[in-house]
Amino acid sequence: MVPDWLPAAIDMPADADVTASRDIGDFFRMVKISTSENAPDLLTRWEAALDAGGYEIDRDRDVGEERSVHFTGQDILNGQIVIEPSGPGKPAVIAIDATLR
Fold first, then answer.
1. Would you say which domain of life the source belongs to (predicted)?
2. Where are the alpha helices (DSSP H) in the chain?
């Protein structure tokens, strides 16, 4: 089940499997999904959708080969989407965490 705190701009792939979901305290949220979709393509799509949805994308935090998106806006003080390493032929694993306002 997709958590209700995720911005609507982050549309989950049809085959998304929520492998972890945590609420830590009153403000920190984390979800981890696996999917067979191309993770870098998802990241690009989500970044564009977040930007179009009024979220500020922090491009200054992008470092080298890191595959992540950092964002803030609306009910989220700061959030990030990170592609975690996975082996060849295995589903992509994506972690999304946020500190809520």
1. Bacteria
2. 39-52
User: Is 27 inside any structural domain?
Assistant: yes
Over the stretch 24-70, which tens digit does the pLDDT of each residue have? Answer: 999 999 999 999 999 999 999 999 999 999 999 986 655 555 589 99
**pTM of the entire structure?**
0.89
DSSP symbol at 43: H
In angstroms, rounded to a whole number, what is the distance separating the alpha carbons of residues 82 and 95?
5
Q: How many CA atoms lie within 13 A of 72 on its CB side?
A: 7
Query: Structural domain tally of the chain?
Result: 1
Give the C-alpha separation, 53 to 15, whole Å.
24
